[in-house]
Model the fold of this input.
Amino acid sequence: MTEVEVAEITAMGMKSIGAALAVGLTGIASGIGEMSIGAAAVGAVAEKKDMFGLALIFTVLPETIVIFGLVVALLILFS
Amino acid sequence: MFQPRQMTKLLIAASKDHIEEVIGELYKRRLFHIEDYVRNEQEEWSGYSIGTSLTQADQISSELVKIRSIINNLEINEEQLPKADYTKQSELSKKIASDLPDIAARIEAILLKRSGLEAEQKDLEQKIETLNPFLAFQHPLEILSGYETISFLAGYGKGTPVLPSESELFTSPVRRGEAFNIVAVRSGQLAECERILLDAQFQKVVIPQEKGLASAAVERYQQQITGLQSEIKAIDQEFETIKKQQQLFFVSSEELLTAEIEQAAAPLRFATTEHAFVIEGFVPTNEAVSLVTSLQKATGDKIEIQELEILDLNEEPPVEFQNSRYAQPTEALIDLYVRPKYTEIDPSLFMAILYPLMFGFILGDVAYGTILLVVSLAARGFVKGSEMGTKLIQILRNCSVSAILFGIAYSEFLGTSLPWHPIWLSRHINMGGSASHGVEYVSHVPELLILSIWVGLFHITLARILGAKNASVMEHGEHRSKLMFAHIGWILVMWGIIIAIWSYFPLLLMPDLTGLPLIAGISSSALFGGILILIGIVFIARDNVLELMELPTIISNVLSYTRLVAVGLSSVAIALVTNYIAITMIIDPALKNFTAISIILLIAGIIVFLLGHTLNTALGLLGGGLHPLRLHYVEFFTKFYRGGGKIYNPFGMIRKYTEAEK
Done:
């Protein structure tokens, strides 16, 4: 294996690690965000069934964070 | 289309002699949204008071209570009722008057008998419970009582207690280390004995007052219980027969009486004087004339009806959607958020078009789309009767058709490709560098991301234009133009930023302005963008300076639309991984050297394949459904939508079982 090949493979590996970090960390952040909202939403739905739709929307709001992470990961991997 | 149904405000006044005709007519037509009269001190309302319910209300409500308790007791489920013709109202009224008291009395008697039998059964079960510990005591139970000098104690305890000398112990082991004990002790030593037993953690049980062996008594009681149970069963059967014969009568009577009680209680919402009453309310404008005519006919023209001026168009009139058949299902999603105000733009049609498009853009797979289409068609039967359910199913149908069309364009089928190249942009990604079945790796991820940003730019621009339109209709005076310009300002800032970006960075699928001539060392287009931003900021600040804090949200809102691609690609990736595990790793090697184990491997491969794609369909439905909804609710609606309109709730009822007569 030439040095160039090794460097290329290393670069590829670094990219993959970067993408994994982007998705993984933002996923944790989303989870933390959704944690309290989800708990409150389940409580609200238990009180009033009509709240289900609204509760679902509120619960997925923090998902934006992981989606930005996913976009960054895609950019790292594919551009 | 973009406006709710037009309403006319009417004031109806008549003599109290005609109150029943007026109420009956209004109820039958089911058009008039009554504005409840609230006692107020305004001069024009002086002398009025809230009306009292019609005289027959008491009787109707007592009948209604009876019917409802019968329906509850018989556990009649409306959905399981056979389809039946409408019952004539007069016939039903007669039947209620003649039959209901008898039936109600009969059911009440049966219920009483049943609860008596059940109580008796409970009693016997209780007795068996107390006898159970004594089953091991093979002597007649009467020897345990009736002595002057000897007392008995019974209960559970651990180990053998050291008892006073003048006592006798019967013990029979129950569980590990625990035994049932009966202690006979001289009455004088009872207290001492009890204390000793208490120290040994002795749990006392009552000694039953029975004669003969415990087992014989238990058997006797069990026989009695069986007898009671068969009696209860017979009653249940009688109940079932009554239910079969009369359930339609009960349900339709309930409907009729509900209609009657609603009418009888209606005057509570009117303003009345000693001899007359006044009702205020709204009627759809195109029905106003016919309602007025029929009211005049019903009262023999002894009624005064006036059209009133609506003072506050935004708040006063109730709101009823008025959309084309295509946009009607989306009303469910709007109502899930909040009903629009009377004057503002009803965004149902925009959402009806854009929501399925976004769903298709995300899911974009022929197979998944077809599965969801089949599901939505199959589920139609289950949601019959639920308006919300029907609407949601129709939305799902539109969305899955859109997913199929996008799937054809992306050339995607369960993550593999169809026999043609993707039209324009491809989402076939190369994962882990290994080839799957028939997939060409020419992914256009950056292009897709830019495309989603375009979607965001246009969506938000549309929202701001609608915001300006709403401001022009709903606001008055100085604030009106300021708010309109603020909305334009937001558009200018957004496009100014994007033009400035174009001036320095060449982006795919976007105009390249990097080559434009420089003015004073700055790119001319960047200068133009900067001017747009400045003008925009001035417009926004003129309305509300604090709003400037929100400027960074322009970028985050537009970038939020990249979720359209990101969520979609994640579902493509799951499909690819499923295919890779199921086909490349399990099925292919199994087929290559075919042995007996290969059959098991094949089955395992197929299970993985099905499980993976089922999961992905569910995730696709969730992701594809929720994210466009969020984009509409959070990014789109917040720019223009106010909501909070009163829901149009006309006085009347949709009858299912009964028929009103003239």
Notes: The mean pLDDT of chain B is 88. Residues 455-553 of chain B form one domain. DSSP finds 16 helices and 16 strands in chain B.
